[in-house]
Design goal:
This protein has 154 residues and is an alpha+beta fold. The protein contains seven helices and four strands; from the N terminus they run H-H-H-H-E-H-H-E-E-E-H. It has a four-stranded mixed beta sheet, with helices on one face.
Length: 154
Amino acid sequence: MEETLKQILDNYRKNEGNIISLLQEVQEAFGYIPREAVEWFSKKLDIPSSSFFGVVTFYAQFHLKPTGKNIITACCGTACHVKGSERLIDGLRMELNLIEGEDTTEDREFTIEKVACVGTCSIAPVVIVNKKVHGRMTTDRLSKEIKKLRGEKR
Ligand code: FES
C-alpha cells in the first residue's frame, strides 16, 4: 500500500495540492478509501484526518468501505421520495438479502447507495445501475435489472 500512497502523494504535490483528486486516486487504486490511507496522508501533509473524512462523506462518489462489483444508486431527493423511492430501496434490500446497517452484499456483488437529487426529477423515481440512469423505476423493473446482473433469467 505504501508505494501506491507515495505515488499519489507525488501527484498531489505536482497538482498543487488538490484533496479531491488525491482521494479519487486513492479510490481508483483500492476501490474505496481505506482509513489507513487517510491517516497516512494526514501525517505526511499535516492536514487533520477530519478534513479528508469531511470531503469523503460529502461526495457520494467516495466509499469508506470496499464496494460491490455492481453499484446501485437510489435517488432519495424530494421528487423521488414522493414517487416511492423508499419502497424501491426496501424492495431492493430484501432482494439482495442485505442486513440492517450493511450496504454491500456478502459476496461483494452489489452495493446500494443513496444520494440526494440527481437532477432528473421529471423521471422520478430514479435509480442508477452501474452509472446507467433508469427513470420511472418500479420494484419489478429493478428486480429484473438485478437478475440480469446476476446472470439469471428474467
Ligand atoms: S429528486 Fe430524484 S432526481 Fe430529483
